[in-house]
Amino acid sequence: MSLSKFKTILIAVFIGGLTIAIIMNPKESLEASSRGLSIWWEVVFPSLLPFFIASELLIGFGVVKFIGVLLEPLMRPIFRVPGVGGFVWAMGMASGNPAGAKLTARIRQEKQISKIEAERLVSFTSSSNPLFIFGAVAVGFFHDASLGILLAAAHYLGNLCVGLTMRFYGGREASSQRGKRKIFPPLKEALRELHKTRIKESRPIGKMLGDAVITSIQTLLMIGGFIILFSVFNKILSIIHLTDLFAQIISGGLALLQITKDLSIPLITGIFEITLGNQFVSETSASLLDKMMIASFILAFGGLSVQAQVASILAETDIRFQPFFLARILHGIYSSIIVFLLFKPLYTDLQSSNQAVLPVFSIIQTPDWAEKYWNALLHFGPLITISSIVIYIYLYGKRYVFTRTT
Known about the structure:
The chain is mainly alpha-helical. The protein has helices spanning 3-24, 26-60, 63-79, 84-95, 99-109, 115-124, 130-141, 146-166, 187-200, 205-239, 242-256, 264-272, 274-283, 288-301, 303-314, 322-352, 359-365, 368-405.
């Protein structure tokens, strides 16, 4: 039997088994599906939509090209990617997964970056946003906003380490830049590129805005489908006790690292779905340091749910998924090590310090904005999601349905 036929049979058996398991466990599947839907329409959709729309408009108007020219002297020698990578990195950190992959794919389609550079860039622009780290994980699960500083520092420093590592990926592949760049490109050159890109854009502003809304909501609908699917898949694995089996295998590795075995099931859960995994980590009786190391790994790895979203986005381009997957493992390892190294100075020492003596740290340790913004998102998120989908249906119908019938 050829490898291709074996792969076909394996996929068919897996999908068929999953379908049968869902049919046999309708109540649990419905609960898991509802939970995934709740995460998507309360948090993911309303938090990502503004960034997706804004990024589409910034690319269309040439602002990204402008930023790329200015950041070229920084991004090229450090990460071996064009200057537009700085914009993708910043937007990825601000908006969270899978914004980095979406923007990388977008500028690859615009041919502003080569294939190898895109694979380098997407590897270190995938991250959780600060709202999720502070609001959901630190405050929501661990009930300690001070842990957000530690987790965020480890998360973003780990991504930086991934970028520095992945700069060696691809060897001496041809660069997307055809000419020599000045070490310090003048503002005039950046403005020239901005104007040139805007002139090339033939769409009127109204159509650009409509396209940005339609494209962004289509992507978010796809993301929602993956979140719901993996929420159900994770529940089914737990029901048929495969999670316990995987946990027994993982527990041996955790024991070698002197991490309690109680975290094996939360780790396996987090490998599939990041939110539920971190919630399970917070509920164990393990030491706080062990919890933080596993939580940091889960945040960095992103979960197979996020990785499936990224794979779907990258499939529209020639960017390979394998480098991204390996980078997520590296990110998890780096972040866990950084938590181990920074736990004492960024958490233990600050907790034992006199708040009156360190007023600056007292402000940092209690980021009320995270909790307030998170609660507001949970409250108004569904309304934003429903309103946006109604607008999407109107725009899509007006553009692709009504124009055909008239």
